[in-house]
Each structure stands twice: as C-alpha cells, then as structure tokens.
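Researcher: Please translate sequence to structure tokens.
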Amino acid sequence: MKSIIFVLSWVALMSSPLALAQGDKLEDICYQSMRYNVSVQMAANSLSGQVRSHYEDEAFDSGKWQGISHEETERMIRMAENNQSSMQFAIRYQGDDSFANAYRSGYINDCKQNPEKYISN
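Model: Translation complete:
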C-alpha cells in the first residue's frame, strides 16, 4: 500500500511548489494532496458506481486545484485499480470511519510537519 500512496502523494504534490509560490497555505496544499490521494484510490476501488462517480469528481477537482491534468488523474485511477494494497485501503476506508478519520488527520499533520516528504522543489 505504501508504494501506491507514495506515487499518489508524489504526483499530487509535484505542483505544490507552484502553489506555495502563489501564496497558498501549506495546510491547503496538504489537504488537497490528501483529498487527491484518497479520491483516486476510492474511485478505483469503490463499492458502487455512485460512490465511484463521486470520488472521480473529487479526484479531478483536487487534481485541477493542484495543476494535475485530467489525463494524469485518469492514469492514476487506472493504476490504483490494479493495486492490491490500494484496494485494501479503499475497503477499509469505506468501512471504518475511525480509520478514515485517523488517516485524513494523520496525512495532513505529517505533511504540515514534514513538508519535504510531500513537496518536491
């Protein structure tokens, strides 16, 4: 699971130096990175078509905010579809609210405390 999450984080934050240069807050950048990461995995592995559609929209919206192309987001969703750990993450995220809440807050907090792990220059 770490490899797909790393790839998603890396793609989501490649445009973050531009966002920081434009004055966006680190908290906003970390939130959008987390949102993109979760949305891509959920779109790829959702339990219903309606849920998939919702998370695809979220991924495209967050990707657009970060400067990630529609095509790149589609590619990331396809890549997550074929990843066992991404599937396990999505199942747990959908079925365990405490896990989902802890994941979201942990991701954002770690990004804010260690931006060098998430934001490349």
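Researcher: Any highlights?
Model: The helical segments are 2-13, 16-21, 26-45, 49-66, 70-81, 84-95, 97-113, 115-118.
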